[in-house]
Amino acid sequence: MPSVEHSLGTDSVVESVCRLNPDLLAEHCQHILSYLQGQKKGLDSAEICDIFQRAGVTLGHESLQSIIRFLTITFRSAAKSKLSADDLVSRLEQGSKNWSKPSLKVLHSLWSQHGESVQIQQTAQDLLSVGRLVDMQWKLGMAVSSDTCRSLNSPFVTILLKIAEPSGQISRKAFEMTVPQFQNFHKQMKELAVVMETI
Questions:
Q1: Which of 24, 51, 151, 182 could form a disulfide with 157 if both were Cys (CB 3.0 to 4.6 A apart)?
Q2: Could you give the 3-state DSSP secondary structure of residue 55?
Q3: CA angle 18, 25, 1 (to 5 degrees)
Q4: Between the CA atoms of 53, 58, 67 and 114, what dihedral angle is there, to the nearest 10 degrees?
Q5: Quick one: pLDDT at residue 139?
Q6: Three-state DSSP class for 106?
């Protein structure tokens, strides 16, 4: 649980959560629970921000990130502690007195429906706590200057990886390779794919 003890900032996040109408809170929690059940590869804060904006809710990026982190940690902690919906609500009330009844009702209802499957998925995920590749893009370019290319006007490949971290946040990693490095990378990926198909 984010904390049974009163932690700095918890009340402000709880107030932000409680400002959401119950339907919007339920939709937002559904995204998080889908991720925690392994049905989604990650939590895209831009997508969630769009949902909020369409509903007329304007939150700053930091507030949105705080809500996502808080609810993700809350559900993940409840799964690890194997809490029932009643126990979850009780712990949330102990952590902050700012919870509204409609918000707690939404969390109780969703945890009653999805808690068990989140617990199963989290147990499995604890064994495999590495990021997952969500997307990979590459493009060929000509180097004007680079640390790895010796001469100007030599071709290079830029790789952009989108990775869903175990925390649920999606991060992007970009790097450059020479064409021979990219060909070797491609060969290794093909070998990995063959091995993965046999598993």
A1: 182
A2: coil
A3: 70
A4: -30
A5: 92
A6: helix
- Please tell me the predicted confidence (pLDDT) of residue 145: 64
Residue 149 pLDDT: 55
From CA 33, how far away is CA 25, in angstroms rounded?
12
Residue with tokens 């020479």: 178
Residue 166's alpha-carbon distances to 5, 125, 129, 133, in angstroms, are: 25, 8, 6, 11
- Give the span between the Cα atoms of 189 and 184, in whole angstroms: 9
Low-confidence ranges of the chain (pLDDT < 70): 1-9, 124-129, 143-152, 167, 199
pTM of the predicted model as reported, rounded to 2 decimal places? 0.60
